[in-house]
Structure formats: structure tokens, C-alpha cells
Design a protein that fits this description.
With 297 residues, the protein is of the alpha+beta class. It contains nine helices and twelve strands. Helices cover 36% and strands 19% of the residues. Helix 5 packs antiparallel against helix 6 and helix 7 packs antiparallel against helix 8. It holds the Pfam family Mab-21.
Length: 297
């Protein structure tokens, strides 16, 4: 009992310290998120919509925090099943791609402003060619930009990466298990899950690679950044949960990644995934300041 009281006392002190010196209060985190959300809302009716991601967009401004800008190209739409009221769309093919990836098929008379390649799987849009095209359109001197995974980074904008993505307007069949699985904690709520379904998912121009192969450059990787935004919203997470996420990121950077054996093989995205999984599976955790250390450990 005495140990429990001591743990609660230390947890409250740590909670206050994180709020005052490291992460910020609940209101400060909310204001940071609102700042980036306003940027998104300004572009919502434009042909290219801005989607903010990365730690800063999540309301965290820790040392080394990144800010990624995703540009949703709305000039073309992707569907898994062809809609009856639309003709000029790209079709999603997951049967001929590795898990977490898909192929994008283009109709012969499609107005998609980029050429396709005829293959045994149909007229496909190459993610490699698409990204190269974007780099050539970004600046006149392509030496000023470089590809980093699915992103494009520039030498004159530090800590900012640009990613142009396409949107699949239907939730992919290969990810339906996530919608239906049992969640002991009841998190996320059915209302949030319904919103996630309505937002669909994104496709980013990067393909799978293995030690023995350079992969299939016609593949596009699924991105569930829109879903993560909804899961990570203030009304979905408590401030204690956000602080736990910040502590996981600090633990990763200061301790795990300083281990030469790990050699920076872990990333903060893994920490977010761990938090989401714990939130789903742990029905008995009480996420309050007094339990901060207990929840973290």
C-alpha cells in the first residue's frame, strides 16, 4: 500500500513536470493541433489537399520532432470496387501485390495525368515513375530535392518532408479485420470507427523491397494516416495517454536508439502502434495522472 501511494505521488509529480517543462498542458497540445488543422482546412476545397502528420502535428514539440506534409492529389480517385456513378477512376488491386501494398490500374481512356505501363496485370501506374515525375515538377534543379522512401525532401527546408498521395475512397477488404476485431477496452468507440471507414485510406508511392529483390515498382503502400489522426485526436485520447506516448518517444530516442546493437532500427511509429494496441487490449488501466508510471510501465 505504501509503495502504491509513493508511485502515485511520483506519477503526479512527473505528470506536472511533463506538462510544464517537456510536452505542455492539455490546452497547449490542443492549440498546437488546432494550428495544423487550420492549415488543412484552408486547402480542403483545393485540387491538392494538405494533410499534416508527424509529431508536431500531433501536438508534440519534443527535441527532434518532425513535421511531415502529405499532399492529397484529388484530381483522381481510387476505388476497390468500381462505383456505378463514376467512370474515370483508378482501380485498387491487392491480389497481385504483397501485404500492405496494392497495384493501381488505369482505364485505357482515363484522364489520369500520368502515363501507365501495360503489364500482365493491366495498365498500371508505377509509383517510381510517379515520384520521379513529382520531383521534376517541384523544382527546376532536381539536385535540390531527393527521394526518401515515399517522401520528397529538399535541401533548403530542414526537417520537412513532402509526400504526394492518392486516396482510396473505400476501406480496403484486406484491412476489414481491424474493423471487426474484439476490443476488450471498448476503444476506439464505434463512432470513431465509423468515421475512419468514411475517410477511406491513402496510397503512397513506395514499393516493397527484400534483401533478395528490389521489389515491384508498380506497388503502392497503404497509409492509414487519416485513421491515425482520428485515433489520436484530443477527444479520443486523454492527456495522460498523450504523455505516455511522449515518454515512449523519449525512451526510444534517449535509451533504445543509443544502443549500438539496435542501430536505430526502431522508429517512433512503432511506439504509436504499441500505444494504440495497449489502449485496445487493456480494459483495466485507469489513465489518470496518479497512474502515469503504472500505465507507462
Amino acid at each position: 500500500m505504501e509503495h502504491q501511494l509513493e508511485l502515485e505521488t511520483v506519477s503526479v509529480r512527473l505528470y506536472k513536470y511533463l506538462c510544464e517543462e517537456v510536452v505542455g498542458s492539455e490546452n497547449i497540445v490542443r492549440y498546437r493541433r488546432l494550428f495544423y488543422k487550420l492549415h488543412e482546412d484552408i486547402s480542403i476545397d483545393d485540387p491538392i489537399e494538405i494533410i499534416s502528420s508527424g509529431s508536431r502535428a500531433e501536438g508534440l514539440d519534443l527535441p527532434g520532432s518532425d513535421f511531415d506534409m502529405m499532399f492529397l492529389w484529388k484530381l483522381c480517385e481510387v476505388y476497390e470496387d468500381k462505383p456505378t456513378d463514376k467512370e474515370d477512376v483508378l482501380m485498387l488491386d491487392t491480389e497481385n501485390a504483397l501485404p500492405a501494398f496494392a497495384l493501381l490500374k488505369k482505364a485505357v481512356k482515363s484522364s489520369f495525368p500520368f502515363s501507365s505501363t501495360t503489364t500482365a496485370d493491366g495498365n498500371l501506374i508505377s509509383s517510381m515513375d510517379f515520384k520521379t515525375f513529382l520531383m521534376s515538377q517541384t523544382v527546376k534543379d532536381t539536385r535540390l530535392v531527393s527521394a526518401h522512401g515515399p517522401c520528397i525532401s529538399s535541401s533548403f527546408l530542414d526537417d520537412v518532408e513532402f509526400l504526394v498521395c492518392l486516396k482510396c475512397h473505400t476501406w480496403p477488404t484486406v484491412a476489414k479485420q481491424w474493423l471487426l476485431r474484439f476490443r476488450p477496452s471498448g476503444w476506439p468507440s464505434q463512432d470513431i470507427i465509423s468515421k475512419i471507414i468514411s475517410h477511406g485510406c491513402l496510397l503512397v508511392p513506395v514499393w516493397s523491397k527484400t534483401p533478395c529483390s528490389d521489389g515491384n515498382q508498380f506497388e503502392w503502400r497503404f497509409s492509414f494516416s487519416l485513421s491515425e489522426q482520428l485515433l489520436n485526436q484530443i477527444h479520443s485520447l486523454t492527456h495522460t495517454q498523450i504523455l505516455c506516448y511522449a515518454m515512449l518517444k523519449i525512451w526510444l530516442k534517449e535509451i533504445l536508439n543509443s544502443d549500438s546493437k539496435l542501430n536505430n532500427k526502431l522508429c517512433s511509429y512503432f511506439m504509436k502502434t504499441v500505444l494504440f494496441w495497449i489502449l485496445e487490449e487493456s480494459e483495466n488501466l485507469n489513465w489518470i495522472p496518479q497512474n502515469l508510471l503504472h500505465c507507462f510501465l
